[in-house]
Amino acid sequence: MTNTPAADQDAIETVRKLIKGIDIAMLTSVAEQGLVSRPMKTQEVEFDGDLWFLTMKDTEKYDELIHNPNVNVTYVGKSYVSIRGTAELVDSREKIKEFWNAAYEKMLETTSDDPNLILIKVKAETAEYWEMGNRTKLVKELYKKLTGKKSDDSRLNEIVDLSHAGQN
């Protein structure tokens, strides 16, 4: 599938609108025993194809990401959004200070200078979303799927390729 820059930007904008205002996401990583999901606070930056999370180096998720950077991030709000991507651990004091706030200090019982703090940058590759804003349409489409009737052209969900987002 070849994306044009306009299509890439449209896909990013759609995902941006769908996840805007959803503070907590479920980050799924690959552990020795299989997939593991945990709630994470998304950093308050405009989605541009990358998602940012703050964590500590002395956690299981850190070790999991060192061994396997493949992740999935799920958002639930007015819509459902599932983003598949690759995680990169970013050890940048400047970036951590940019995201830092008093809530982290209380929650993590540390300061932004703590060398144990690290950022997770998820480079989105694909996003699948289900728009749930129109309940009548949703019920109608689900009924059609359950009864095997043919659905109209309007789709409940879309998959968008974000792998070229932000590349020049």
UniProtKB/TrEMBL annotation:
Gene3D superfamilies referenced in this protein's UniProt entry, alphabetically: Electron Transport, Fmn-binding Protein, Chain A
General stress protein FMN-binding split barrel domain segment(s): 10-151
InterPro entries from the UniProt entry:
Split_barrel_FMN-bd (IPR012349), Stress-Dev_Protein (IPR052917), YdaG_split_barrel_FMN-bd (IPR038725)
**By what name is this protein known?**
General stress protein
- Origin species: Xylanibacillus composti
